[in-house]
């Protein structure tokens, strides 16, 4: 399996799958959406801010002079709040001193873990489609990116062949649950098989659980809670998704002290420390009443349903989404097998923008997913209704 992310001959930049410098299709679609005044359901960020009280806490923190570097591993109060959150929701008890660091979004947690623990000669296994930053970071680390296919319509891996993705060189396996871009949530059988194989091949598990609270039925199962997992699992999460403050870029990484310490050696030189006044606010957010978390998921579920309805009315096959901001739709029923081409035309055609799923894949996976589009539904209900209306005109305009 090839990796689409490679160094240039000068070793300076990353090259994307088509050989161009790594300006992503996200930017291209956003530019097209802006040019056509389209409703942008491409990138996953909410169009409404999170709880006003958290905004006020951040403003107070700025007004009260909390504007200098936070400690490198994060403010003690936020590390304590992350530990309390892990215990309250999952019964996990990480030590805030040695087993948690605060990062600049989940992105930096992922980068720090991959860059500190893997390198040339190692393999890193992800499911495919995969969140794009894994591929880029594995490319930067110099490790080889191997994949295990998630199969539509429910985007589960084939457990009978999952072991084929592992080898004695597998240094890390990355799990993303709930899963972007598909909205799949992996049941305990899948997660346990990943853990079993990680133990067998002595691999670290990096689990990205940024959508842990944005689920529409199934209970979220943190990998670290499974038997045998805790000692080899680094868990990533982020305030961006849970609290609808994606621009604050506050994330965290937790796991055994030796792995967290390794990641910190890289985090230290990526950013050193992360947004001081926002850390204070997110500590309060993590301590909010349980109803905040369940209400946020229920609101998002309604949004998912509005968009699903619109996609169905457009003649698309809607694939199940059990969590995240995203839902996939299959364009094959409309006779379209090139979702990437369609994604480039959609903003001009009907004034809606979406992301083609093949961008989250290597070439083989891109062929498997070539008719799929990813739509984000973390937008105001009125906007989603409007998008649904526009989508309903798709068949007539093609
Ligand atoms: C699966 C996944 N991981 C990580 C991130 C990045 O999170 P953050 O904004 O906290 O860096 C995202 C954002 O879209 C995501 O979807």
Automatic annotation (TrEMBL):
<dbReference type="Pfam" id="PF00155">
    <property type="entry name" value="Aminotran_1_2"/>
</dbReference>
<dbReference type="GO" id="GO:0005737">
    <property type="term" value="C:cytoplasm"/>
</dbReference>
<keyword id="KW-0663">Pyridoxal phosphate</keyword>
<dbReference type="InterPro" id="IPR015424">
    <property type="entry name" value="PyrdxlP-dep_Trfase"/>
</dbReference>
<dbReference type="InterPro" id="IPR015422">
    <property type="entry name" value="PyrdxlP-dep_Trfase_small"/>
</dbReference>
<dbReference type="GO" id="GO:0030170">
    <property type="term" value="F:pyridoxal phosphate binding"/>
</dbReference>
<protein>
    <submittedName>
        <fullName>Aminotransferase class I/II-fold pyridoxal phosphate-dependent enzyme</fullName>
    </submittedName>
</protein>
<keyword id="KW-0032">Aminotransferase</keyword>
<dbReference type="InterPro" id="IPR051326">
    <property type="entry name" value="Kynurenine-oxoglutarate_AT"/>
</dbReference>
<comment type="similarity">
    <text>Belongs to the class-I pyridoxal-phosphate-dependent aminotransferase family.</text>
</comment>
<feature type="domain" description="Aminotransferase class I/classII large">
    <location>
        <begin position="39"/>
        <end position="391"/>
    </location>
</feature>
<keyword id="KW-0808">Transferase</keyword>
<dbReference type="InterPro" id="IPR004839">
    <property type="entry name" value="Aminotransferase_I/II_large"/>
</dbReference>
<dbReference type="InterPro" id="IPR015421">
    <property type="entry name" value="PyrdxlP-dep_Trfase_major"/>
</dbReference>
<dbReference type="GO" id="GO:0016212">
    <property type="term" value="F:kynurenine-oxoglutarate transaminase activity"/>
</dbReference>
